[in-house]
Write a structure and sequence with these properties.
Blueprint lengths: L5 H6 L4 E2 L1 H7 L4 E9 L1 H10 L5 E3 L7 E9 L4 H7 L5 E9 L5 E8 L5 E8 L11 H8 L12 E15 L2 E13 L3 E4 L4 E7 L5 H8 L9 H9 L9 H7 L4 E2 L2
Parallel strand pairs: 1-3
Antiparallel strand pairs: 2-7, 2-11, 3-8, 4-5, 4-8, 5-6, 6-7, 8-9, 9-10, 9-11, 10-12
Organism: Demequina capsici
GO biological process, one term: polyphosphate biosynthetic process
Protein name: VTC domain-containing protein
Length: 258
């Protein structure tokens, strides 16, 4: 029997919002992100206590959706190393496949010196095979970013992550709630995060209602990145101090694929 967490039970009570409404009112492609690692029961209490309306993304009756992201990096993992060294301006490139709807996209995330993040996305006609590098359509898109023009053709897959996401919308931003996060590297090693939720708030600038409510309960932002934290766990030879606490508390030891 599958047990339903308090959060999974609560999300079914929230009013629904469509994807089209989110794209119109809360796409938040330019934003400030804050991440938290939260017990499912505590998260349900946080959402229930908010003094602002909350809606949940619903598509064809579903309120949680399976995601697969393939991160691409240079041979020497320059994008990972930029994050590990806390370079203020850094970039990530990934393909994203929405397993429940069949949609696929190529995405570029650019972090500015001010701390804001700009996500650019191009939906693709089919799921791209990037085993040998970006497809021509994706390469044209990624190569159009000045920071990536010189390396786009050399990018190769470095990590695949899978998880189940629920998306909430509040009047001041958007919140993603990820569960069951697993990661697999190109050498067949894998890790799984513990039962806690990875909650990410996306607001235009200042802290939103969800951030303030979490802080009031003593829950502070955590250093967790599905790409970087997973790579740090799977590759002990890489610099990893930035994510050491998250690794100790929330990530199971790497396992070799059978």
């Amino acid at each position: 029997m599958t047990l339903v967490t308090p959060w999974e039970a609560y999300v079914g009570t929230l009013p629904a919002i469509s994807l089209e409404q989110i794209e119109t009112t809360a796409a938040m492609l330019t934003r400030v992100d804050r991440k938290y690692v939260v017990e499912p029961g505590h998260w349900a209490e946080v959402v229930a206590s908010l003094d602002v309306p909350v809606q949940v993304l619903e598509i064809d009756g579903r309120r949680s959706f399976r995601y697969e992201s393939v991160y691409l990096d240079t041979d020497d993992l320059q994008m990972y190393r930029d994050a590990a060294r806390r370079r203020p301006r850094r970039t990530k490139v990934r393909t994203r496949h929405y397993l429940d709807t069949g949609a696929s996209a190529i995405e570029v995330k650019e972090r500015s010196a001010s701390g804001s993040t700009v996500k650019s996305r191009l939906f693709l006609d089919s799921r791209p095979d990037v085993a040998e590098g970006l497809t021509s359509e994706a390469l044209d898109f990624v190569g159009g970013f000045p920071r990536l023009a010189d390396v786009a053709a050399s990018l190769r897959p470095s990590l695949t992550t899978t998880y189940v996401r629920t998306t909430l919308v509040t009047p001041d931003g958007r919140v993603t709630v990820d569960a069951g996060v697993e990661a697999h590297d190109v050498d067949g090693r894998s890790i799984a995060y513990d039962h806690r939720l990875i909650v990410e708030t996306k607001v235009s600038h200042h802290a939103g209602a969800v951030d303030r409510t979490l802080w009031a309960r003593g829950i502070r932002p955590a250093r967790v990145s599905k790409y970087c934290t997973s790579m740090a766990a799977l590759r002990p030879d890489l610099p990893s101090n930035r994510w050491a606490r998250t690794l100790r508390r929330h990530v199971d030891a790497p396992a070799l694929a059978s």
